[in-house]
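Students often ask what a holo structure prediction actually looks like on paper. The answer is less mysterious than it sounds. You provide the chain, you provide the ligand, and the output is a string of discrete structure tokens encoding the 3D arrangement of the protein together with S-adenosyl-L-homocysteine.
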Amino acid sequence: MSIEAIRPDLAGLERADLEAALEARGHARFRARQIFRWIHRRGVTDVADMTDLPRDLRAMLADAFSLSTPAIVAREKSADGTEKFLLRLDDGRQIESVFIPDTPAMTFCISTQVGCAMACAFCLTGKMGLVRNLTAGEIVGQVRVLAGALDMRERPFNIVLMGMGEPLHNYDETMKALRILADEHGFALAPRRVTLSTVGLLPALERLAREPVMPNLAISLHAPTDAQRGALVPINQKYGVADIIAACRRFPLKKRSRITFEYVLLAGVNDSPDDARKLAKLLAGVKSKVNLIPLNAAAGIPFERPSDQAVDRFAKILADRGVLVSVRRSRGRDIRAACGQLLVEGQRKSPAQKLAGAMQ
Ligand code: SAH
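The corresponding structure tokens follow.
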């Protein structure tokens, strides 16, 4: 292992851990607040630029820690204002992050893994397989880079964990990243501004239900029955529809908040009136809203997007049964930045990673 790899990354430390690390090296704990502000609020990428820190502290930081910042490799802007960022991590792996303006909020769509192990049948990221988990520093790093590049450090934004990867499959680093983002001396991002989207890994979902810092929850449901969902979302063979809905019923929700159920509409597969009726029945009594996502088609994805008419018909059946429903007008399709279209080619997995993936 290189020396670089064993130096803790300042960008991925929670403030309490940074305080403890400083104290252990004979420095004052309050310096952590200053360091946090430099990294997360002001976006410095080099401890030498933390000009209000004593010289010996800066030297210690440079010596004992690293400070990782994803590098922008490419930046592409859609006709609708959506911007896709291709970012390079310290080990050369690449990920994508997306800025979606005016939804009406400003939203950053952030990745939690390089690739994804879930292999949902209609998702391009799933075709990559899992290359590796992102660290908390790399998850927060995407926010640091986008906020800087878009001149949004002083402006409010939301975060959706809907980029590459399955956030609950990288639980600890994802939750650590959310705590760092929430820190009052960093981005001070309120948890209600964050939405975590998951295929529904049950044990992790139960864990999430007990977290003190709780994001909004979105569940990628996509079908009302196990037979249909199993064919689209492989992990459904382990955690089925009934179990997921039961966990959602138990999930502690704040007043007025609801669980979002994402439902990718695939022509002739899950978009029939009967499917809509079954979905309405399944969600009866769940504090929910349904977000319909007409498929974003791509080469290699063996499904078709339903007609607008079929989408409207599906939505109306839900609405008529009292289900809150919206249709996601996918943004950035012209630059392949829309849902399920994030793919970085040519990132070969090592045999060990393939083995680890197969053992999940
Ligand atoms: N792994 C997380 C985050 C994925 S991305 C999850 O599964 O929830 C966010 C949403 O985009 C998910 O609901 C996902 O199923 C959906 N999606 C994936 N591929 C898509 C495609 N080709 N068209 C439309 N939506 C897609």
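The CA atoms of residues 223 and 270 lie 6 Å apart.
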